[in-house]
Amino acid sequence: MATDELSSKLSHRLQIEEGAVDPVALDVPRHQNGSEEKLNTASVDPELSAKLTRREALNEGQDCPRNMKVLNPYNEFREFSRKQIKDMELMFKKYDVARDNYIDLTELKLMMEMLGAPQTHLGLKTMIKEVDEDLDLKLSFREFLLIFRKAAAGELAEDSGLSALARLSEIDVSTEGVKGAKTFFEAKAHAVSESSRFEAEIRQEQEAKKREAEEQKRRRAAFKEKQSAFM
Q: Which region ranges are annotated with the description Disordered (predicted)?
């Protein structure tokens, strides 16, 4: 029973932090000096505990360590082609004005205005919240890709801000990516079966770079030949 009560308090605190509910006084034990006692999160849901711990660290201005796992979008988001992911990356970098590898609330506001679908402050926070896995109130590149994954899977409400972002981005996630699949799981199975397509795209990129290098070499040789004719 005590664990359920503690879990309820933790959940309520997260909802207050995210603006989902209004603050309400809770019966929290206090020390003799009047300071609020820290909640013991060890015995409650690990995910809820981790979220609360990270949120408290952020509120106190601490540099909360992030998941250091390196993102390989070509492996994790195989329902998209390499070209689609590169287009998404270019779009992400375009609006990452601070060049910190994140799109914060201000940058998202600019993005939506540039796309012709301005949002209210609450609307922008709602957009971030839908894909904000680490609760830092901004979008990493992986979280940005999740927007297009949800759009391709038909998981976004038509009138939502994220739906407008995906629709107005001019990045087609339905033709090359999911091939008209009804659900994301069908799209995922289709992407796995087309692993050779990625290999072909990589080979094409390598061949294009090789041709470019050979062309540059040919131009340098031609320039040197002309230069020697005037010596």
A: 196-231
* pLDDT of res. 103: 97
Number of structural domains, the chain? 2
142 and 78 together in one domain? yes
* Alpha-carbon dihedral angle through residues 11, 15, 16, 18, given to the nearest 10 degrees: 140
- The reply to whether 163 and 202 lie within a common domain is no
CB distance 132 to 80 below 8 Å: no
pLDDT band per the 50, 70, 90 thresholds, residue 35: very low
How sure is the predictor about 146, in pLDDT bands with cuts at 50, 70 and 90? very high
Q: Label residue 45 by pLDDT band (50, 70, 90).
A: low
Last residue of a domain, which of 138, 169, 200? 169
Domain that holds residue 80: 73-169
- The pLDDT value recorded for residue 48 is 57
Query: Do 77 and 135 fall into the same domain?
Result: yes
182-192: per-residue pLDDT in tens?
Answer: 455 555 555 55
- Does residue 80 sit in the same domain as residue 127? yes
**Mean of pLDDT values over 105-133:** 95
Helices (H), the chain: 2-17, 46-59, 73-76, 82-95, 105-114, 121-131, 141-152, 161-168, 184-193, 195-229
* End-to-end Cα distance, the chain: 93
DSSP code, position 69: P
Q: Please name which of 161, 150, 58, 180 lies closest in space to residue 115, comparing C-alpha atoms.
A: 161
Same domain, 182 and 165: no
Read off the pTM: 0.52
Specify the DSSP class assigned to residue 210.
Answer: H
